[in-house]
């Protein structure tokens, strides 16, 4: 249920920025196994949030483009 809360609570830019920070911390090392696992899990959750935002944006763009093509096709 936490993933659903995160998905509705933060926007794309916030999720992306936090994901960048998670990756930076994982790459830097120096964390315990437990901390690394928690960071990995958070990163996966944030990646899903970003993916959903991008998929939604793509769907809206596709719908807008399809709407623009519709009347033009009818005029011809």
UniProtKB/TrEMBL annotation:
It catalyses: Exonucleolytic cleavage in either 5'- to 3'- or 3'- to 5'-direction to yield nucleoside 5'-phosphates. This is Exodeoxyribonuclease 7 small subunit. One of its GO terms (molecular function) is exodeoxyribonuclease VII activity. Bidirectionally degrades single-stranded DNA into large acid-insoluble oligonucleotides, which are then degraded further into small acid-soluble oligonucleotides. PANTHER family: EXODEOXYRIBONUCLEASE 7 SMALL SUBUNIT (PTHR34137). InterPro entries: Exonuc_VII_S, Exonuc_VII_ssu_sf. Keywords: Cytoplasm, Exonuclease, Hydrolase, Nuclease. GO terms for biological process: DNA catabolic process. Its EC number is 3.1.11.6. It is found in: Cytoplasm.
